[in-house]
Amino acid sequence: MSLEQEIIQSICMTQHGRYEEGLGRLQQLTLLCPADFRPWWAIAHLSTEVQQRREALHRVLALKPDQSQARELLMRLDSEAVARAS
Which of 18, 20, 47, 66 has its CA 20 to 30 A from that of 26? Predict the structure, then answer.
C-alpha cells in the first residue's frame, strides 16, 4: 500500500469511530517516512489537541518551508491561544 493510501485509510479510521487507531497509525507513518510532510499534515488537521496540532505544523514547515497553508494554520492557532489567554 502506498503512503498516500495509508494516510487516507488512517483519516477514514479517525472519521469512523476509530480516532485513536487512525491517529496512532499516522504517528507511525511519521516514523516510517520521516522525510515526508503528509502524515504530519494529516495529524495537524485531525488532532483534537492544540499542542499536538502545533507540533505537527512545525514539523510540516521544517520539512516543507514553502507550505503556506501550514504557516497560516499555525498563525491562526497562535492567535486563538492569545485570545483565550486574554
Answer: 66
Share of the chain above pLDDT 70, in %: 100
pLDDT tens-place string over residues 14-46: 999 999 999 999 999 999 999 999 999 999 999
The domain limits of the chain are 3-85
**b/e for 5-16, b at 16 or more Cβ within 10 A?**
ebbeebbebbee
Give the pTM: 0.91
- Classified as helix, coil or strand, 60 is helix
What's the CATH number for 3-85? 1.25.40.10
